[in-house]
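Invent a record, attention on tokens:
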Amino acid sequence: MTAAPPEVVFRPLAGTVDYDACAELQRATWGQGFAEVVPGVILKISQKVGGVAAGAFDREGRMLGFVFGITGVRRGRLAHWSHMLAVAAEARDLGLGRSLKLYQREQLLPLGVEQVLWTYDPLESRNAHLNFNRLGVEVEEYVENMYDEESGSELSRGLGTDRFIVVWEIAGERARRALAGDPPDFAPFRAAPAYDALDGAAPPEAPRVRVAIPSSIQDVKSERPEEAAAWRAGTRRALQGYLARGYRVAAFGADPQAARGWYGLERVD
């Protein structure tokens, strides 16, 4: 079921060359000063106990991307924490992120694992699109500064490490529909009241609402750091507030002309 681009091979990481390439891709993605690089010994031994440490390689054997996670027990059932996913800059927009997640899913289902969790920054619209529309995740929690410090990550610098914890029920109906090309429906939210952190208005009260994020928070941070900080503060307040009042994140949509992405949230009865 892995929708691999032509001539790309997906396989477990094995040997020093693979582990070194994975460490280098971590630094290329999160910054040369990134302090939380997963070392080769962890990539190796995790695979002995149901973990997944796998890469996407071109026909010359060069690593184009990788996925890494560990398997354990959560609330009495097997679960997998997908800790890292990265794709080399030159290989983005080839669908490798989704393909790596599908490869991960294929390795986990035979083990009896049906629940996969990970975190991502709610301000990253590319990740939101992948997670909701291409994979079919659900948000479990918004955690403020989940990783405490920025750990040398260039992506987090100046923004902190606020994260959504998402759950991917890999054998569930929501995932099956997204993987079949039928993502969560954003249409019911198009006319819903909207909250934009830069407008200065309070988050609206309604059964359905939209919460805006920039189409590229990294571009905003680079060009207008004070605006990026305003996006963080405003979306944190709105998303935490809605989730605390019983809303769920139901869908994600984009408006390229307005340079905005939109979370669609609805109140759960």
In short: The CA atoms of residues 159 and 229 lie 6 Å apart. Residues 225-244 form the longest helix (20 residues). The first strand starts at residue 9 and ends at 12. The mean pLDDT is 94.
